[in-house]
Amino acid sequence: MTAMSAREPARADVAVIGGSGFYSFFDEDAADVTIDTPYGRPSAPITVGDVEGRRVAFLPRHGARHEFAPHTIPYRANLWALRTLGVRQVFAPCAAGSLTPDLGPGSMVVPDQLVDRTSGRTQTYFDGGGVHVQFADPYCSDLRKAAARPGTVEGGVLVVVEGPRFSTRAESLWFARQGWTLVNMTGHPEAVLARELEMCYATIALVTDLDAGIEAGGGVRAVDVFAEFQRNLGSLKTLVRSAIAAAPEGACEACRVHEGVTLPIELP
Fold it and tell me: Which residues cross the membrane (predicted)?
């Protein structure tokens, strides 16, 4: 794998934000790109290469050695760096707990809604200027359609918690009673930052466990979550590759939300 600085002409139009297992994702030789942003460095250097005939950027969400906990991930730097490379579409595979026994470990879900239960995370680039982005449908319908391959579950509500702890049994039961489908720690503010940068964004959630209120016993353990994710990583990578191949090029109209608005900052 070669390395280059951001001054060299590294470009990509699609990004994958996921786990370190995606480093072996590319069809041919890939290059690492180091980028500085107004919000600091992203989680790790970004790897750019070819996947299914598209130019793809890969960014490990938690860092190359999983050094960032969910609440310390530099979300703003990550999305800004990807847009700097030309990215306009983002697939975001992640691990999630299930809030219904109908979705057991190994299920892959393409949610269509998000509930934010985080606290203290910076979730905007616009600290002034009266900018309010449309976010009723947080995931791009074009990318969701591309990811909805045979065997996936289409639709569902992802509730994002602060972490790094797992939910209590009472919290999990509360989430389930609301009709929410999945629980995760990293889906927000990633989705809204992508929207503010006018990038199409879709999550592909791999179910690693039944959440604490759904399954009797000792509750969720990180070691089991990591092991289940690793067992299904090959299938998840295959799904993401097929989604990239099926996605139309460029940002869709619905995700270009700043028409007629004067922004207080210039987007990269």
Answer: none
